[in-house]
Amino acid sequence: GLRRVGIFRISGSVNKIKELKQKYNQGEKVDLINHGDVDSVASLLKLFLNELPVAVLPDSVCAGMLKAFQEHRIDTTECIKNLRQLISCLPKAHQNLLQFLSAFLLKVATHSAVNCMTLENLAIVFGPALFK
């Protein structure tokens, strides 16, 4: 699906998303390759992130990130140091999810010439789910 034009922007089938979500919630094995289309699987990922009880990047971390960006606009090395410190304070599950999602979205963006999903477009799609 990395070459799917508009991946994450085109909604999947509501029924398929509901079916896949139900299977996951019941602990069933889910075969996304054979039983899910690209748009429904992409929508399922966004739904998962949106329904997390706590944002991947909680308000306290977001405030610290904004402060780091404001205070270190010119000194990117110091800004990155501060951001790493903030992320290291997240619960391990949040860190792991953020690391996996970042790597995955970077991979999606490497195909932006075909799928039209640049880093900026992905930020628009995933930002609200990550920061709530």
From TrEMBL:
Keywords of the record: GTPase activation
Q: SUPFAM superfamilies under this entry?
A: GTPase activation domain, GAP
- Tell me the superkingdom of the source: Eukaryota
Gene Ontology CC annotation, any one: cytoplasm
- Amino-acid biosynthesis as a keyword of this entry, yes or no, is no
- In this chain the Rho-GAP domain maps to 1-132
GO biological process, any: signal transduction
Locate the transmembrane regions by residue number: none
Recall the GO molecular function terms of this protein's record. Answer: GTPase activator activity
The protein here is known as: Rho-GAP domain-containing protein
